Amino acid sequence: MSRVWSGGCACGALRYEITGEPIVMTDCQCLDCQSESGTGHASHLVFPSKDVTIPEVATGWEMTADSGKKKTRHFCRTCGSPVFMTFAATPDILTVRAASLDEPERYRPQMVTYASRGWAWDHLDPNVPKFAKMPG
Ligand SMILES: [Zn+2]
Ligand SMILES: [Zn+2]
């Protein structure tokens, strides 16, 4: 048995515990992740949705991605920390933000998505494979 993936927002009002394992961990440099995070990329763990309960203290807003698909970014109503993202087209998966983990050191980026949007000042590990957009 692996350890639970626990975490929450910056103020502590929003907490989660996930018993499953992440499908993949990705740094995303898309312009949406940039503007929403206020920096060069967002770091996401992708989990099966069935393993995650988004707490009621979260609230969300829907946006249309580059791809034309809808996604909803869920954040803490009190402190505004972004924590989850869900996808209308693929409801079976969702993402959790790496720095929301109680143990952020467990995050190991396996790929960089939308590297074509990245800035020179947002220098990421050169050993992590980079995709111009979203692979697959
Ligand atoms: Zn909060
Ligand atoms: Zn992104």
Question: Would you mind describing this structure in some detail?
Answer:
The protein has 136 residues and is mainly beta. It has one domain: Beta Complex (Metal Binding Protein, Guanine Nucleotide Exchange Factor, Chain A). Helices cover 5% and strands 35% of the residues. The protein contains one helix and nine strands; from the N terminus they run E-E-E-H-E-E-E-E-E-E. The strands form two sheets. Strands 5-6-7-8-4-3-9 form a seven-stranded mixed β-sheet. Strands 1-2 form a two-stranded antiparallel ribbon. The N and C termini lie far apart (30 Å). The mean pLDDT is 95. It binds zinc ion (2 copies). The site of one zinc ion has 6 residues, from helix 1.
Quick take:
This protein is mainly beta and 136 residues long. It has one helix and nine strands.
Global geometry? globular
CATH architecture: Beta Complex
Could you say which structural class the secondary elements and strand pairing correspond to?
A: mainly beta
- Low-confidence segments, ≥5 residues, pLDDT <50? none
Query: Structurally, how many domains make up the residues?
Result: 1
Bound molecules: zinc ion
Instruction: Estimate the helix proportion, in percent.
Output: under 10%
CATH topology type: Metal Binding Protein, Guanine Nucleotide Exchange Factor, Chain A
- Sketch the major β-sheet: 7 strands, mixed
Strand order of the largest sheet: 5-6-7-8-4-3-9
End-to-end span in angstroms?
30 Å
CATH top level assignment: Mainly Beta
What is the strand content? 35-45%
Mean pLDDT: 95
Rounded radius of gyration (Å): 14 Å
Query: Quick one: how many beta strands?
Result: 9
The H-and-E topology, N to C, reads as EEEHEEEEEE
Secondary structure tally, helices: 1
